[in-house]
Amino acid sequence: MRKSLRKKRVIKAEEALEKNIGSFCLIDVEVEDLKNTLGTPETNPEQDKTVEESVTKSSDPTQMVNIEELFENARKEGFNKGYKEGFEKGKSEGYQTGLKEGIESGKKDGFKKGYEKGFKAGKEEGRNIVETRYKGLLDRIQAGLQDLEKLKVDFEVGLNSLEDVVVGLVVESMKKLLFVIPEESLVRETVKELVNRVAEGQEARLVVNPKDWDIVKDNISVPSFVKVTTDVSLKRGSCIVETEAGFF
Protein backbone atom coordinates (compact mmCIF):
# COMPACT_ATOMS: atom_id res chain seq x y z
CA MET A 1 0.00 0.00 0.00
CA ARG A 2 1.33 3.40 -0.86
CA LYS A 3 2.34 5.83 1.85
CA SER A 4 0.75 9.24 1.61
CA LEU A 5 3.00 12.25 1.73
CA ARG A 6 2.09 15.29 3.86
CA LYS A 7 2.97 18.71 2.60
CA LYS A 8 6.37 19.56 4.09
CA ARG A 9 8.10 22.86 4.65
CA VAL A 10 11.74 22.86 3.60
CA ILE A 11 14.25 25.12 5.46
CA LYS A 12 17.81 25.23 4.30
CA ALA A 13 20.56 25.04 6.94
CA GLU A 14 22.15 28.18 5.50
CA GLU A 15 18.91 30.07 6.02
CA ALA A 16 18.67 28.88 9.62
CA LEU A 17 22.17 30.18 10.31
CA GLU A 18 21.32 33.55 8.75
CA LYS A 19 18.25 33.85 11.01
CA ASN A 20 20.29 32.91 14.10
CA ILE A 21 17.71 30.50 15.39
CA GLY A 22 19.99 27.79 16.58
CA SER A 23 17.45 26.83 19.25
CA PHE A 24 15.32 25.27 16.52
CA CYS A 25 16.23 21.84 15.22
CA LEU A 26 16.41 22.46 11.46
CA ILE A 27 17.54 19.94 8.93
CA ASP A 28 18.32 20.30 5.24
CA VAL A 29 15.51 18.55 3.55
CA GLU A 30 15.69 17.67 -0.10
CA VAL A 31 13.15 15.99 -2.21
CA GLU A 32 15.43 13.02 -2.56
CA ASP A 33 15.87 12.83 1.19
CA LEU A 34 12.11 12.77 1.59
CA LYS A 35 11.94 9.95 -0.85
CA ASN A 36 14.60 8.02 0.99
CA THR A 37 12.89 8.68 4.31
CA LEU A 38 9.40 7.87 3.21
CA GLY A 39 10.39 5.08 0.94
CA THR A 40 9.96 4.67 -2.79
CA PRO A 41 6.35 4.51 -3.81
CA GLU A 42 5.05 2.21 -6.39
CA THR A 43 5.91 3.22 -9.90
CA ASN A 44 3.33 5.72 -10.91
CA PRO A 45 4.58 8.58 -13.05
CA GLU A 46 1.55 10.73 -12.39
CA GLN A 47 1.77 10.27 -8.65
CA ASP A 48 5.47 11.03 -8.58
CA LYS A 49 4.92 14.19 -10.50
CA THR A 50 2.28 15.31 -7.99
CA VAL A 51 4.63 14.70 -5.06
CA GLU A 52 7.46 16.63 -6.65
CA GLU A 53 5.19 19.54 -7.42
CA SER A 54 3.97 19.58 -3.81
CA VAL A 55 7.48 19.61 -2.43
CA THR A 56 8.56 22.25 -4.89
CA LYS A 57 5.63 24.48 -4.04
CA SER A 58 6.35 24.16 -0.31
CA SER A 59 9.84 25.55 -0.88
CA ASP A 60 8.43 28.77 -2.29
CA PRO A 61 9.51 31.75 -0.06
CA THR A 62 6.03 33.17 -0.24
CA GLN A 63 4.72 30.06 1.48
CA MET A 64 7.27 30.02 4.35
CA VAL A 65 6.33 31.11 7.84
CA ASN A 66 7.99 34.29 9.01
CA ILE A 67 10.91 33.05 11.15
CA GLU A 68 11.40 36.38 12.84
CA GLU A 69 7.81 36.40 14.00
CA LEU A 70 8.19 32.90 15.35
CA PHE A 71 11.39 33.90 17.14
CA GLU A 72 9.76 36.97 18.67
CA ASN A 73 6.76 34.96 19.79
CA ALA A 74 9.04 32.33 21.28
CA ARG A 75 11.09 34.99 23.03
CA LYS A 76 7.98 36.58 24.49
CA GLU A 77 6.65 33.23 25.53
CA GLY A 78 9.96 32.36 27.17
CA PHE A 79 10.14 35.75 28.85
CA ASN A 80 6.62 35.43 30.23
CA LYS A 81 7.29 31.92 31.41
CA GLY A 82 10.59 32.93 32.98
CA TYR A 83 9.04 36.02 34.55
CA LYS A 84 6.25 33.95 36.03
CA GLU A 85 8.63 31.33 37.37
CA GLY A 86 10.97 34.03 38.69
CA PHE A 87 8.08 35.89 40.25
CA GLU A 88 6.85 32.78 42.01
CA LYS A 89 10.34 31.91 43.19
CA GLY A 90 11.00 35.46 44.35
CA LYS A 91 7.63 35.55 46.04
CA SER A 92 8.41 32.32 47.87
CA GLU A 93 11.88 33.50 48.91
CA GLY A 94 10.50 36.89 49.91
CA TYR A 95 7.80 35.20 51.94
CA GLN A 96 10.33 33.05 53.77
CA THR A 97 12.58 36.04 54.43
CA GLY A 98 9.65 38.18 55.52
CA LEU A 99 8.37 35.34 57.69
CA LYS A 100 11.75 34.99 59.40
CA GLU A 101 12.13 38.71 59.96
CA GLY A 102 8.52 38.96 61.07
CA ILE A 103 9.09 36.20 63.62
CA GLU A 104 12.19 37.94 64.98
CA SER A 105 10.44 41.30 65.10
CA GLY A 106 7.41 39.70 66.71
CA LYS A 107 9.64 38.04 69.31
CA LYS A 108 11.25 41.35 70.22
CA ASP A 109 7.95 43.20 70.37
CA GLY A 110 6.31 40.38 72.29
CA PHE A 111 9.23 40.18 74.71
CA LYS A 112 9.08 43.92 75.36
CA LYS A 113 5.34 43.93 75.95
CA GLY A 114 5.54 40.76 78.03
CA TYR A 115 8.37 42.18 80.12
CA GLU A 116 6.51 45.41 80.80
CA LYS A 117 3.32 43.56 81.68
CA GLY A 118 5.18 41.05 83.85
CA PHE A 119 7.14 43.78 85.61
CA LYS A 120 3.97 45.70 86.40
CA ALA A 121 2.19 42.57 87.61
CA GLY A 122 5.19 41.54 89.73
CA LYS A 123 5.48 44.97 91.27
CA GLU A 124 1.79 45.00 92.17
CA GLU A 125 1.96 41.49 93.57
CA GLY A 126 5.04 42.32 95.62
CA ARG A 127 3.38 45.38 97.08
CA ASN A 128 0.30 43.35 97.99
CA ILE A 129 2.45 40.71 99.69
CA VAL A 130 4.33 43.32 101.70
CA GLU A 131 1.13 45.09 102.70
CA THR A 132 -0.51 41.80 103.74
CA ARG A 133 2.47 40.29 105.53
CA TYR A 134 3.75 43.39 107.25
CA LYS A 135 0.53 45.32 107.74
CA GLY A 136 0.54 44.75 111.51
CA LEU A 137 4.16 45.80 111.77
CA LEU A 138 3.54 48.89 109.66
CA ASP A 139 0.57 49.79 111.86
CA ARG A 140 2.69 49.44 115.00
CA ILE A 141 5.44 51.53 113.49
CA GLN A 142 2.91 54.19 112.54
CA ALA A 143 1.47 54.15 116.06
CA GLY A 144 4.99 54.37 117.49
CA LEU A 145 5.72 57.40 115.34
CA GLN A 146 2.55 59.04 116.60
CA ASP A 147 3.58 58.29 120.21
CA LEU A 148 7.01 59.75 119.54
CA GLU A 149 5.42 62.87 118.16
CA LYS A 150 3.29 63.14 121.29
CA LEU A 151 6.32 62.60 123.51
CA LYS A 152 8.13 65.28 121.60
CA VAL A 153 5.33 67.74 122.26
CA ASP A 154 5.17 66.74 125.94
CA PHE A 155 8.93 67.02 126.23
CA GLU A 156 8.90 70.51 124.74
CA VAL A 157 6.15 71.52 127.16
CA GLY A 158 8.04 69.94 130.06
CA LEU A 159 11.24 71.58 128.95
CA ASN A 160 9.58 74.97 128.94
CA SER A 161 8.16 74.29 132.40
CA LEU A 162 11.49 72.96 133.60
CA GLU A 163 13.14 76.06 132.30
CA ASP A 164 10.87 78.16 134.48
CA VAL A 165 11.60 75.90 137.47
CA VAL A 166 15.34 75.98 136.89
CA VAL A 167 15.31 79.73 136.49
CA GLY A 168 13.34 79.99 139.73
CA LEU A 169 15.79 77.74 141.54
CA VAL A 170 18.73 79.74 140.26
CA VAL A 171 17.09 82.97 141.31
CA GLU A 172 16.33 81.59 144.76
CA SER A 173 19.88 80.30 145.12
CA MET A 174 21.32 83.65 144.11
CA LYS A 175 19.05 85.44 146.52
CA LYS A 176 20.33 83.29 149.36
CA LEU A 177 23.92 83.82 148.33
CA LEU A 178 23.34 87.57 148.26
CA PHE A 179 21.49 87.41 151.58
CA VAL A 180 18.40 88.86 150.03
CA ILE A 181 16.47 86.00 151.58
CA PRO A 182 18.93 84.61 154.14
CA GLU A 183 18.66 81.26 155.76
CA GLU A 184 16.51 81.08 158.89
CA SER A 185 19.44 80.03 161.02
CA LEU A 186 21.48 82.99 159.83
CA VAL A 187 18.65 85.41 160.67
CA ARG A 188 18.24 83.88 164.09
CA GLU A 189 21.95 84.05 164.87
CA THR A 190 22.17 87.68 163.76
CA VAL A 191 19.25 88.79 165.91
CA LYS A 192 20.44 86.76 168.87
CA GLU A 193 23.92 88.28 168.72
CA LEU A 194 22.60 91.84 168.62
CA VAL A 195 20.22 91.25 171.49
CA ASN A 196 23.00 89.84 173.63
CA ARG A 197 24.97 93.04 173.14
CA VAL A 198 22.32 95.01 174.97
CA ALA A 199 23.21 95.34 178.61
CA GLU A 200 20.79 93.86 181.04
CA GLY A 201 18.22 96.40 182.23
CA GLN A 202 19.14 98.81 179.44
CA GLU A 203 16.21 99.86 177.35
CA ALA A 204 16.65 99.14 173.64
CA ARG A 205 14.67 98.86 170.44
CA LEU A 206 15.15 96.08 167.87
CA VAL A 207 14.14 96.94 164.28
CA VAL A 208 13.79 94.08 161.73
CA ASN A 209 12.05 93.36 158.49
CA PRO A 210 8.54 91.98 159.14
CA LYS A 211 9.30 88.75 157.27
CA ASP A 212 12.49 88.19 159.24
CA TRP A 213 10.58 88.66 162.49
CA ASP A 214 8.07 86.02 161.43
CA ILE A 215 10.98 83.62 161.11
CA VAL A 216 12.69 84.26 164.47
CA LYS A 217 10.00 85.45 166.89
CA ASP A 218 9.17 81.92 168.01
CA ASN A 219 12.79 80.77 168.17
CA ILE A 220 14.50 83.61 170.04
CA SER A 221 13.89 84.73 173.57
CA VAL A 222 13.85 88.54 173.57
CA PRO A 223 14.30 90.23 176.97
CA SER A 224 11.45 92.36 178.17
CA PHE A 225 13.56 95.51 178.16
CA VAL A 226 14.07 95.13 174.38
CA LYS A 227 11.22 96.40 172.33
CA VAL A 228 10.82 94.84 168.84
CA THR A 229 9.53 96.85 165.90
CA THR A 230 9.36 96.08 162.19
CA ASP A 231 10.25 98.23 159.23
CA VAL A 232 9.45 97.11 155.66
CA SER A 233 12.05 99.49 154.31
CA LEU A 234 14.73 97.58 156.15
CA LYS A 235 16.53 95.10 153.97
CA ARG A 236 15.85 91.50 154.81
CA GLY A 237 18.59 89.85 156.80
CA SER A 238 19.45 93.18 158.38
CA CYS A 239 18.47 94.45 161.77
CA ILE A 240 19.07 97.53 163.89
CA VAL A 241 19.43 97.76 167.64
CA GLU A 242 18.80 101.23 169.02
CA THR A 243 20.01 102.02 172.57
CA GLU A 244 20.79 105.11 174.62
CA ALA A 245 24.40 104.65 173.59
CA GLY A 246 23.61 104.61 169.90
CA PHE A 247 22.84 102.21 167.08
CA PHE A 248 24.52 98.99 166.24
Automatic annotation (TrEMBL):
Pfam families: FliH. One of its GO terms (biological process) is protein transport. Residues 46-55 have a biased composition (Basic and acidic residues). GO terms for cellular component: cytosol. It comes from the Bacteria. InterPro entries: Flagellar_FliH/T3SS_HrpE, T3SS_Stator/FliH. Residues 37-60 are annotated as: Disordered. Keywords: Bacterial flagellum biogenesis, Bacterial flagellum protein export, Cell projection, Cilium, Flagellum, Protein transport, Transport. Residues 160-246 form the Flagellar assembly protein FliH/Type III secretion system HrpE domain. PANTHER family: FLAGELLAR ASSEMBLY PROTEIN FLIH, YOP PROTEINS TRANSLOCATION PROTEIN L. Needed for flagellar regrowth and assembly. Belongs to the FliH family. This is Flagellar assembly protein FliH. It comes from Thermosulfidibacter takaii (strain DSM 17441 / JCM 13301 / NBRC 103674 / ABI70S6).
